[in-house]
Each structure stands twice: as C-alpha cells, then as structure tokens.
Specification:
The protein is of the alpha+beta class.
Length: 243
C-alpha cells in the first residue's frame, strides 16, 4: 500500500505542472525534454518533505507515517482455511524511498516505475480465521511487523482524450525481502497452540509472503489507479505535462 502512493507521485506530481492553479512548489518537467525522466526524479526528490507530510490540495495522503484503514491479506479463496486482514495500520519508513526505475514512452503513454524502500515498521489490528491441521484458529488483536528490502515495480498505461489524461491500467508487482510479525493475543488461552501457530508463521515466512503478495498487488493496483486518476482529472494534459 505504501508503494502505490510513491508510484502515483512519481508519475503525477513528478511530471510537473504548468497551470497557475497548480502549486508553485512542484517543479515543471516537459514531455519533449530528452532528459524528462531525470527531471521527474529531481522533481520528486524536491517534493520529498511534502510527500512525507501529505499534499491535501492534490488529495495525496502523507507517506510517513502512512495510515491504511484496511487490507485483506488472505481471503480464503486461493488460500483454503486461511482468512486474514489488517486494519488501522500505521506504517513508518516510506519517506526513505528511492526511485530505482523510471522509463517513459511519451508517445505511447506507457510508463515503468520502480521504487525501493529499505524497511517499514508497521502496527495495527489483525483478524485471523485459520486452521492448523484440524485445529481452528480465530483470533483478533494488535500486531507489530517489520518488512525489509521492499521493491515495487509498476507498468502503467495511460491515454489522452480531449486534452485530458487518464490512466487506463496499472500492473503492480512487489517483492519483500524479509518480514517479521508479532501478534498480541494470538491464542493466549492455549500456550501450546499459540507456540505452534507462531512457529508456523515464522518458519514459513517466505511461503506466506508468496501467498499474500497477489492480494497486496491487486489491492495496490486498484487503489493506485483510482488515486492517480483523481489527481490527473484536476488538470488538462498540457497543464500537467507541457511540451
């Protein structure tokens, strides 16, 4: 969820705006500039302090901390016997992002964006409904988590109609190097089962990350597409990305 906000700003705020209705603190980049990708990177870097705090006039939430109302990690469809969601999540560390890839095909309106975050510290509430062997596990509580070496890549297709730019599709991929999770109140009334559950989670982290990744990617793509178009609809294409 953190990644989609970064990718949005790289593409939208980073492109620069030329209209008097757009904040003057956003550096202008021109689409006929042969170094437009580098210009966008520099523009986003200059915006970093504001990105961390958020830009209300562009409907851009703050990155650090980033607040996420709810995200479903497992829905039981592709992961039988496992439903899990996180809510009221607060994540710290996204402000340390680095743009790793930025390639633009201005004529085809195609963009490739890569962002890396060294680490994220998260906390919030969890709700899990699962089964270990034949033992059902239903638990709610507070969690603390730490994710490291987070890499996000987005392939984005846009279109211009009547001088209005709209994002048509976003294919989002994410990789997480490592992930540690501690859940309070997890089967606290059964110490043996609690220990077995924790060993299951911690001993199969990479498998769990692989299972959870498609859900996270799909949610990020949906929210990124909606957020991006909410921003771009405020301006004409020539205002947002002048020649």
């Amino acid at each position: 969820m953190v990644k989609f906000n970064l990718v949005t700003l790289v593409l939208v705020a980073g492109c620069g705006f030329a209209s008097a209705f757009v904040p003057e603190y956003i550096h202008i980049c021109h689409r006929n500039d042969p170094e437009v990708a580098e210009c966008i990177k520099n523009s986003v870097e200059a915006l970093r302090p504001r990105l961390i705090q958020g830009i209300p006039e562009l409907d851009v939430p703050g990155l650090d901390p980033l607040k996420i109302k709810k995200i479903v990690i497992f829905d039981g469809a592709q992961t039988p016997n496992l439903d899990a969601s996180l809510s009221n999540v607060v994540a710290h560390g996204a402000g340390n992002f680095k743009i790793t890839t930025l390639k633009l095909d201005v004529e085809k309106k195609t963009y490739r964006v890569g962002v890396k975050i060294p680490s994220l510290q998260m906390e919030g509430d969890y709700d899990i409904d699962a089964k270990i062997l034949v033992t059902p596990i239903k638990s709610k509580g507070h969690f603390h988590a730490n994710a490291t070496d987070i890499d996000g890549q987005a392939l984005i297709q846009g279109d211009v109609n009547n001088n209005r730019f709209k994002f048509q599709s976003i294919a989002f991929k994410i990789k997480i190097g490592d992930f540690n999770l501690d859940m309070d109140n997890l089967l606290s009334d059964d110490p043996v089962l609690m220990q077995a559950a924790r060993q299951l989670f911690n001993g199969n982290k990479q498998d769990l990350i692989s299972l959870a990744t498609p859900y996270i990617e799909r949610k990020c793509s949906e929210v990124l597409l909606d957020l991006s178009n909410k921003i771009t609809e405020k301006f004409t294409y020539d205002e947002a990305f002048p020649l």
